[in-house]
């Protein structure tokens, strides 16, 4: 019997990168998975196909988590399709770095709407269905402890996610629902390739500062999330696990 047999999970922003790896890892451990996406339907369907090819169950559901109605519909799709909800992984997020002199209202609102409001709205919707043994895992970032330049807005969103995790851990604890955070360091994804970071001098510099001596991979993060979602972490709540190869 796999660790997550009988469980149902929603993973936001799961059409690629870390989110896709998380969805596949949860499915490998036995969960039925809702693969959420905002724009890349083809990517989400590819993740679903990969899960089904391994014998798992999954569906793709479009939804902008920064909009209350769409966050609610995402959660309801999970319950209607699979009959329950046990795990929510708040992975949806955007990042665009800007020096303080270049910060705009649009830059701020886009980041906070998706990275923070999205976490609140999906957690609100999920909390109506999560029962004893349920788990919320929020994806934050190691930037909150290393404070790189030109990340004031992005780092601010992730600092907010860390605080929200602590509050919800206390708020949902009487119902025996756990809430934790995983904070990745630098991870090579489609996004880092698109941004020109992968293979760049910037990447080389980040790897040079990483004690374990390499860039992260999506599956490095997915394994930590799968642990927190499982009963192996039954006594873990309100925690932040930094998965960064040792970067502090």
Automatic annotation (TrEMBL):
Signal peptide limits: none
Pfam families the record matches: adh_short_C2 (PF13561)
InterPro entries: NAD(P)-bd_dom_sf, Sc_DH/Rdtase_CS, SDR_fam
Domain of life: Bacteria
GO MF annotation list: oxidoreductase activity
The entry's keywords: Oxidoreductase
Protein family (similarity comment): Belongs to the short-chain dehydrogenases/reductases (SDR) family.
Protein name: Oxidoreductase
Taxonomy of the source species: Bacteria, Pseudomonadati, Pseudomonadota, Alphaproteobacteria, Hyphomicrobiales
């Amino acid at each position: 019997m796999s660790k997550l047999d009988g469980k149902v999970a929603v993973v936001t922003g799961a059409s690629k990168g870390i989110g896709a790896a998380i969805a596949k890892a949860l499915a490998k451990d036995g969960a039925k998975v809702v693969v959420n996406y905002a724009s890349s339907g083809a990517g989400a369907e590819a993740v679903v196909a990969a899960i089904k090819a391994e014998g798992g169950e999954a569906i793709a559901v479009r939804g902008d988590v920064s909009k209350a109605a769409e966050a609610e519909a995402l959660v309801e799709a999970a319950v209607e399709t699979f009959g329950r909800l046990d795990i929510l992984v708040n992975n949806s997020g955007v990042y665009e770095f800007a020096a303080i002199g270049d910060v705009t209202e649009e830059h701020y609102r886009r980041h906070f709407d998706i990275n923070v409001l999205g976490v609140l709205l999906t957690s609100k919707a999920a909390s109506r269905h999560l029962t004893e043994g349920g788990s919320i895992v929020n994806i934050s970032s190691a930037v909150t402890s290393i404070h790189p330049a030109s990340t004031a807005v992005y780092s601010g969103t992730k600092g907010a996610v860390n605080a929200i995790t602590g509050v919800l851990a206390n708020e949902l604890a009487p119902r025996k629902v756990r809430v934790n955070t995983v904070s990745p360091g630098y991870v090579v994804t489609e996004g880092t390739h698109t941004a020109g970071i992968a293979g760049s001098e910037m990447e080389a510099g980040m790897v040079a500062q990483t004690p374990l001596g390499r860039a992260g991979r999506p599956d490095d993060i997915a394994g930590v999330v799968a642990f927190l979602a499982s009963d192996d972490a039954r006594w873990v709540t309100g925690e932040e696990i930094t998965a960064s190869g040792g970067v502090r």
